[in-house]
Design goal:
- It contains 14 helices and 21 strands.
- With 503 residues, the chain is an alpha+beta fold.
- The strands form six sheets. Strands 14-18-13-17-15-16 form a six-stranded mixed sheet. Strands 8-9-10-1-11 form a five-stranded mixed sheet, with helices on both faces. Strands 4-5-7-6 form a four-stranded antiparallel sheet, covered by helices on one side.
- A hairpin with a 2-residue loop joins strand 6 and strand 7 (144-149).
- Helix 7 packs antiparallel against helix 9 (329-339) and helix 13 packs antiparallel against helix 14.
- The model is unreliable at 1-25 (pLDDT under 50).
Amino acid sequence: MLLAALLPISLLVGACQPREPSPVFPNQARGGELRVLLPGEPRGFDPNAGGDEVFLILAPNLYNPLIALDVDGRLLPDLAKSWEVSDGGRTYIFHLREGVVWHDGKPFRSDDVRFTYERLKAHPSLAEEAFRRIERIETPDDLTVVVRLTEPWAPFLPTLAWNGTYILPKHIPPGGPPVGTGPFRFGGQVRGRRVVLVANPRFHRPGPFLDRVIYRPVADSARAADAIVRGEADTTITRVPYDRLFRLQRTPGVRVVTSPSSSRFYCAFNLTRPPLGDRRVREAINRALDRGEIVRRALFGYGAPGLGFYTPSVGWAYNGEAHVPPFDPERARSLIREAGARPVELLIIRLSPMTEMADLIREELGRVGLPVRIAEVPVSEWLDRIVRRRDYDMTIIAGMQGPDPENLRMRFGSGSVGGGGVPGYSSPELDAAVAAGAASVDLRERAQAYYRAQAVLARDLPIAPLAEAVHTTVFRANVRGLAHAEGRGLVPANDYSLVRVRP
């Protein structure tokens, strides 16, 4: 997501006023359904549990956070209509919307927020760094929530607006039915076939304009593209192969919208075992990779070479001077010989463009004397091998680098998942820099701290950046109001409250 417009805490009060969207088709009657293709099916219905990427796609239509992020990383009011920050960034006062009700008709109150945040504070979550800093939560009345932190922490608001902070009803026991405040209510599930959501007529924002949303799991990206062309689905979350996008843009009845993204592709090294524990080998790999060729052949031009160690879409925090070593195959060969590197295994998920990138990496590293074997695994095994067992040499990772440069700690900090993130990397300098960036409420000081962090990564090379991604949305031409199209700046990603489907 683009966070260049993200403001320092001292200016966020002025950025929190609601921007009410207007209907996309004001003269069209409500009704109809949206058919959405998913890369899998949800394992459960707890939007804050983590580890269920598929349900996080559905969650914005069933639940709401206090504040949300639009697709460009700007903060949007949601259950909180406005907020204030005081006490040097230690106190956050949220003013809740009036008249919001849960799907079962019970009123939404501040106690629900306190219940949710205390639950998140007690259990690990996607946003645990934010919740472990909460000293106490106060609810002086039904429409006010006061959150007091133990210390200033600048990423607090962007983190609350990210995944894993949806407000849950206090009156529904854990494991109960999915009851939220979102634009749609749970309408049923047929395992392996579909999940149905139906319109919530008492939604607190404009919409929904559809009768229902029907999600269908289709893991095969080529099949997803074919289903859109044949009119069997209206839009897809399953990634469409990049080599199909050019043709889809010229297919009657189909639209393809591309937009900036904070997502990027990179190759993570396992620093805990040879030969990737040797910096010379990591430098050789970085010098051997032709990033322009990767963008041309694996992404078919939909992206840009990855040269830095954070996303350039967050302009204020991106250090353009901290970049990969220049492309130099001769120097790469020399380093490989000097290190006496053994053959390595590249672990990837069976998805495009991972497979195309892996083939190119194998080709380019083979030219400099480093044989590579590709191992393709499903998502479930990949997570187990790299996160839990750290059983790999190299692996390709893709993902959003937001909602804040705090993401650098999540991916590379010594205290992150597994210790040092996926690479098993440890650097007191990096830890100190990202901690300083989070502790300051001054945007200039934050930027300087994150510049230092990226310089450390450029020196130590725990990864090989590959490419900066663009977001692509593929949908039928009779669909309007998607978050990356006409709904841009009005709703969060995957929120269908403004969507209409023309007959």
